[in-house]
């Protein structure tokens, strides 16, 4: 009888998966959900998660400091007192000053906002509308839409005031346990990467805002083990997914 060929055991063994072998990275990434890929991207930048020192320095601390300044300058009691005294210009000045120390708004939005509240009429609209959003009675949709309409009515000098960032920044700074900040382009990119149903429309509206709140709550649930504290952590996580800085 002729000699039978010996199988190429080396090749066969190399192709066969052994118990305990780790899947190759390329194959693993294809199987990950959008949420899992986003988590990995965040942790590549900030291995310590929401307690990471670099994360705190780059993303969280300045937003939390703005919130603390708000609580000092425009807490509910102080806000009501200034409204009662009809010191609308002071309310607007304090709010604009607090926001100006962050990088949340674009420069053209900061300028438009300052111009909009320079007059007594503009400051009155702004102050009364913002108090109603933050501390007034009523359903959240009703309060949000009223605030959106107030921003739309603010005096306009050159640049439009009614943008998503302007509409959402003060709720985010004042009540970060409840309100979130919306940067349209970054948020849409992040939602697409995450696989979230973000129903964006360019004009500020409740449907888009409520879908962002739901997106944030889904992120909070998915990252429960990382213990996000508030909307500052959730907004920062979303920002990392959509920003070209990361």
What distinguishing features does this structure have?
13 helices; 246 residues; mainly alpha; single chain
Strand content: under 5%
Count of alpha and pi helical runs: 13
Order of helices and strands: HHHHHHHHHHHHH
Please tell me what the overall shape is. globular
Q: Give the N-to-C terminal Cα separation.
A: 67 Å
In short:
This protein is mainly α and 246 residues long. Helices cover 65% and strands 0% of the residues.
How would you describe what is shown here?
- The protein has 246 residues and is mainly alpha-helical.
- It has a domain at 60-162.
- Helices cover 65% and strands 0% of the residues.
- The chain has helices spanning 9-15, 25-31, 34-45, 53-73, 76-84, 88-100, 107-116, 120-135, 140-153, 164-174, 184-194, 206-222, 231-242.
- Helix 8 (120-135) packs antiparallel against helix 9 and helix 12 (206-222) crosses helix 13.
- The protein is globular, with a radius of gyration of 24 Å.
- It starts with 8 loop residues before the first helix and ends with a helix.
- Mean pLDDT is 91; it is low at 1-19.
Write the layout of secondary structure elements.
Elements: H1 9-15, H2 25-31, H3 34-45, H4 53-73, H5 76-84, H6 88-100, H7 107-116, H8 120-135, H9 140-153, H10 164-174, H11 184-194, H12 206-222, H13 231-242
